[in-house]
Every structure is written in structure tokens, then in C-alpha cells.
Amino acid sequence: MSAGVRVGVCSYPSLALPSKDVSLPSSSLYFGRKIHRSSFDTDLKLRCNSNGTRRTKPVLAVVSSSRVPELDSSSEPPQVFDGSTRLYISYSCPFAQRAWLARNYKNLRDKIELVPIDLKNRPAWYKEKVYPANKVPALEHNNRVIGESLDLIKYIDTNFEGPSLAPNSVEKEAFADELISYTDSFSKAVRATLSGEDSDAADGAFDYIEKALSKFKEGPFFLDLFSLVDVAYVPFIERFHLIFKDVMNVDITAGRPNLALWIEEMNRIEAYTETRQDPQELVERYKKRAQAEARP
Ligand SMILES: N[C@@H](CCC(=O)N[C@@H](CS)C(=O)NCC(=O)O)C(=O)O
Fold first, then answer.
1. 118 and 208 in a common domain
2. What band does 190 get if pLDDT is binned at 50, 70 and 90?
3. Domains in the chain, number
4. 196 shares its domain with 244
5. How far is the centre of ligand 1, averaged over its atoms, from the C-alpha of 96 (Å)?
6. Residues 286 and 182 in one domain
7. Residue 123 in contact with residue 73, Cβ under 8 Å?
8. What's the pLDDT tens digit per position in 24-47?
9. Which of 136, 145, 155, 289 to mutate to test the pocket of ligand 1 (most atoms within 8 A of CB)?
10. Atom 15 in ligand 1: which residue has the minimum CA distance?
11. Do 270 and 44 meet the contact criterion of CB atoms below 8 Å apart?
């Protein structure tokens, strides 16, 4: 080590391939090729930037394997409250995606079992035995069930091992609170533009994100290092990015270099790419819903 070179602590989690619940059809859609496990493992070697911030090499694609099928009204319930820890999600739900991503990032794939639910044909036992609110995500842990994605990602971060997702300074903590409390307003503003209600609202919301991403300059994420804030926003930005491009022919990253870089860096994190949706399906689902809502 030469004098004067700053050596940072580079502590990304080891992004091992999950044993059973993984599939990344979206990755192959993005990159159009599959790679073998050995080279994939090598590709996941994590690096520090010269300034010590954490960095991954790009995740190109993932070995083909299938996602755990969703449980529906014909499925038997799991042995609820048998001491297992289960995360109930829907593959298409952005709120559930937050909790799923947090669980992956903390390398809890073996500790927290993923239980995907078909929301369109929901099993009655889900509301009766698991979560009376009848929504996803929900985490069954220590004989109780915790819901609400923003609470849940904090709960997972605090109550389980694995790399921390928490802000690492008082200043970042305050900024994280501000950003987390803006998540709903962000989505509302973007939706107001998509619905034609307010043509400028989305621009304001994306500009807010662009500015927020410039506050800390050591890394590409909201708080420099990957954190709960990135987890909270990425499922929504993923959707809006695709929908704006397809439906409105607008690139939300144009003129927003911080946002462009953030999306690029997010796509290097396997814990996230594993949860990403098939872009085409996502856009189709949005269009169908928008059409249905527009019908008198
Ligand atoms: N505020 C909740 C929202 C969860 C939510 O609305 N999930 C949707 C799926 S994306 C759901 O379960 N909907 C079922 C229903 O409302 O009946 C959270 O952040 O977890």
C-alpha cells in the first residue's frame, strides 16, 4: 500500500446465487444472452473504487432457472407460525419488491423463505391465517406478521444479519427520513402526469430525485452507499422509466445524469436485478390497467 492512497472498507455482501427462488428472465431480456454459473460467479466479484466506495462489476445475466410459482386459491397454506420466517410477496408488486430486494441484499435467501402470492386469485387463507390486511408484502417472523413495505425493509435491516442498509451518519439519517417520507408524493406526482391530470408534476418529481442524488458525491446512490432509500425508490423508478419510454416516448434520464448513473449502478446489483420485472410484461400490465381505468 503506498502512502497517501486512501483505502476504504469495501464491504458489499457476497452476492451468491440463491438456491431456489431465483430467475432473471428480465436480465436475459436486457442483455440477450445467458452465461454459465462459473463465469457468473466470477463476474460478481466486488470491487472498490479508488476512493474506497463500493462497486460491483456488471451483472450481465443469470443462469436460467424458474421462480417459485405463485400460490393461488387452490394452494394449501404453508405451516403458518411453525417457526419459519416467510416473506409473502407478489412478483408484480413494487411494495413487495422493496422487501424482497432487502432480503436478497442482506443474503437472507436461506433464512427468509419467499412465498409469492397470486393477487388476482388470492388464497382465502392468506387473509384468514397470515395477514388480515390481505396485502403484500408481509413478513412472518417470530410468531407475528409485519407489513407495510417501508416499515418492513427497516425491520429486515434491523432484525437480521447481513450488510447494513442504514444511513451511516446523522446527516444521512436525516436525509434518508426526508427522502423516505417523499416516496408517496413522488409516485403520486408521476402518476398525475401519466393520467393526464398534471403534465408538469412528473418533471418536478424526477428533478427532485436528480437533485437528491447530487447531495452526497462519493457514490452513485442516494446516501453514497446503497441503502434503504435506494430500496424504497427503485421498484417505482424501474416502472416509471419503462412506462414513460414506452407510453410517452420520454426518457426520464435525459438531462438527469445522476439518475442515469443511479439506474446503471442499480442494474449491477444482483440482489435487485433478481427482483426486476420482465419489462414487456410490466408495460403491458400498465397499459391494460390504464385502459380499464379510462373506461366509463
Ligand atoms: N402501503 C403498503 C401497500 C401494499 C400494497 O398496496 N400492496 C398491493 C399489491 S402492489 C396489495 O397487496 N394489494 C392487494 C389489495 O389491496 O387488496 C406497503 O407499502 O406495503
1. no
2. very high
3. 2
4. yes
5. 8
6. yes
7. yes
8. 333 322 222 222 222 222 233 333
9. 136
10. 135
11. yes
Residues 124 and 200 in one domain: no
Please give the distance, rounded to the nearest whole angstrom, from the Cα atom of residue 122 to the centre of ligand 1.
13
DSSP letter (8 states) at residue 221: B
Q: Give CA–CA dist 101/27, Å, rounded.
A: 15
C-alpha cell at 93: 408488486
Amino acid letter, 213: L
Highest average pLDDT, of 10-19, 21-30, 44-53, 246-255, comes from 246-255
For residues 177 and 277, membership in a common domain is answered with yes
Tell how far the Cα of 84 is from the centroid of ligand 1, in angstroms.
Answer: 23
> 33-84 pLDDT, tens per residue?
222 222 222 233 333 344 444 444 444 334 335 799 999 999 999 999 999 9
What atom in ligand 1 is closest to the CA of residue 137? 20
Taking the centre of ligand 1 as the mean of its atom positions, its distance from the CA of residue 209, in whole angstroms, is 24
Residue 165 near residue 227 (C-beta atoms within 8 A): yes
Residue 55 lies in a domain: no
Rounded to two decimals, the pTM is 0.81
